[in-house]
Amino acid sequence: MKRFLLVLSVALLIIISFSAFISDDDPFTALLKKLEEFTKKYPQEKVYLHLDKPYYAIGDDIWFKAYILDSRTAAPSTISNILYVELVNERDSIKKQIKLQLQSGITWGDFKLTDSLSEGNYRIRAYTQWMRNAGPEFFFDKTIKIGNSWANKVFITTTNQLSTDDKGEKVTSTIKFLDKAGKPYIDREVSYEVQLSNRNVAKGKAVTNNNGEVVINYTNNQPTIYKSGNITATLTMPDQQKVVKIVPIKSTSNAIDVQFFPEGGNLVDGLPIKVAIKAINSNGLGENVSGKVLDNDNTEILNFETKYLGMGSMILNPIAGKTYRAVVKTKDGTEQTISLPKAESSGYVLSINNTDTAKMAIKVMLTEDLMNKGDLNLVATHNGMVYFSAKIPTVKQLASLSLPKSDFPSGITQITLFSPTNQPVCERITFVNNTVDKINIEPENLKTSYTKKENVNFNIKALAGNKPTQGSFSIAITNADIVTPDLENESNILTSLLLTSDLVGYVEKPNHYFLNDDEKTRKELDNLLLTQGWRKINWKNIINNQNPPILFQAEKSMKISGRITKGGKPVAKGKVSLFSSSGGFFATDTLSDAEGRFNFDEIAFGDSTRFIVQARTDKENKNVQIDLDMPSNQIITTNKNTGDIEINVNTTLMPYLNQSDKYFDEQMRRGFLSRTIMLKEVKIVEKKNPAPNSANLNGAGRADQVITAKDLEIAFSLSQFLSGRVAGVNIVNGKAVMMRSMGLGGARPMAIVLDGMNMGEDFGLDDINVNDIESVEVLKNIGNTAIYGSQGANGVIVITTKRGAGTENNYARYSPGIVTYSPKGYHAVRQFYSPKYSATPDDRPDLRTTVYWNPHLVSDSTGKAILNYFNTDQAGKYRIVIEGIDGMGNIGRNVFTYQVN
């Protein structure tokens, strides 16, 4: 038998070696050509964010570096030039969003965690517009814990007890409310609302007991639909201030979900096959189980056991006429019976042994009735690119071959078996982890120990393929005694770009599979891929030419575009002007095309920039309508990383929060940080600025007369309202004219400044809808007009529009022919503060939790880059994490430590 397999393997290798010379009219060659065209037309991007820390506290900065790759080449992406990064709270609401400009597939930024935020399980989500075509499953989406001690008065801990009755799943949640010193809030009223999958299931009021606890009972009568949610609990403080806390509900059940996955797709009578097992508890985490397989005669066939995160496998040889069921036992002794998939009477089995470091051993088996029916085709792809293709004869029921892993790039390889009629019949994903496409990053001159506040100066050397490489690296240094890493669960450039970015669904402890390269770990990783249940390529769509729609174009630059119409018909060759005075004066013109469309592209601007778009026909008729193209917002999907959600965030992070408190208190003492002060419920009389959003150069509200939106509620038009209401100003032909200038030979109208833009003499008071005005400031005296220079010689009227009138994008339409627009601009990138201690001693404490962060450390032609920074006042084991990429798409990561005494 061994001799037969050896001869067959050699024969297959001969066939493989000539596979490149298959005739062009071969149908399977045509199918691969379709795949090539599809991959070229629909390239995919991957994004990964390197964060400076695994968790944070309110008051911290989240520093990050983004790496975006083209999945076809693994090189830095040139598809998109703009990246969106969002901070999403537990209610699946965006709290912060920033827009970053990409250069050669990299960018960096930060989120400031102000004390207007609360503690909880937040998500950082990143994507390009082009990635939206593939769907949010492929976004970078990481759950991070953010604690709150420094700006917090109420601390909670929650415990849940689960039970079941005939009405559904019952939950008893006990929430304890404590102050910062650990003392309970006694006899305080708590109102609460329970939501499961955004559906209200209970609400009410309670009073805390002597332990500061309230007990909330609720029932989930549809557990298959409503699986998780949250409790919104509002505590009334002794000073009557109300404090709101969000408590996650990870699950309402103790049930264990167990699934069985035949390797390659199906059980087939008479063919031995590996069957993978995956058991997940109600919290979304793997839970080990054991059990046995019985046939329909109640005969025990085999025993099985999962040994890591609820995953394992067994070998089953189905017999014709038999059915099988598994009796699964959980750790508490509970048993459940699950029917295994019914075996097919005719079919194929694809079996792969991937535990060897150098090769993949592949076996193809088929039932006797399928022999001599034509050649099969076996294809191995990586991100849509074909790396192996071979024809397999069907003269025998078993064929085996071996593929060297060195021929494949690191990451997930999809192996598909096609029938003689070129239909996919078996499929399997495997993982390849080569060293040849990784960057080796090593320190030079790094000492094993340093002192507090000592200057640390060392080099890193980056090698790819044992040759120096130029790349961009991000480096984060923390004190591991303060910021404790979760080694198995931390995401990094390897776990993200090579593994999780190509898998849909939650992957528990992704870094576990990269910490060791032994046979046990490779088996555990193989079990993960066997149970993931997803494939990169939908071959049926390729075969049937069912291409996905392109709903979102790749963004190469910012643009403002739209269409102008008159009477519902497009205006061709209309003049469209774009103005802005934010951060300096900007103006440009363009003409509309035959469809009335216009486009201002290749422009760049920061956040909070306001534009005015003005349009006219080619005959200077301003009675046109402008409709801007509004980008649709990306929906917020529910958090897929359910296993990473922590119910008691503050309790879990308390050691880190205590250290953070010291740092923030010291920063506030020095005046570098401020804290929002929550006032008691008292009435405060304050003179409100009547024009808070004005661009008045004198300062908002500094004018001879201010008219508010409330004043204008009774107005039909602005000219009608101003007539007779502003001393020394007359209204002439819809324009405001100061009386003192009327005798100077053709009085000139007062200048109109709309949202910071001087609109010129052609603009009339009634060219703007009075309902869209927030404030009008009239500047008449020289003290107010002088700052406008010659433009203010005849007085100035500053008009400020209502923010966000009409849409979420701060887009307000005025008639005729004017709109104002405040699109999302580029985020202003801040620099991480790293102190430099001179020869003069600095006795002030340095309590930073992130010791050093550099998002763009560039290696030179020799592969070297220099690091220079100072330690903090904290002794401990300092952890250096360096990640990066070179121009060829090689990625690398290394972690090293030193001691500070």
UniProtKB/TrEMBL annotation:
Q: How does it sit in the membrane?
A: Multi-pass membrane protein
GO CC annotations on file: cell outer membrane
What coarse category fits the chief subcellular location reported for this protein? membrane
Locations listed in the record: Cell outer membrane
Point out the signal peptide segment.
Answer: 1-22
Q: Can you tell me which family this protein belongs to?
A: Belongs to the TonB-dependent receptor family.
| Protein name per the record | TonB-dependent receptor
> Which organism is the protein's source?
Pedobacter cryotolerans
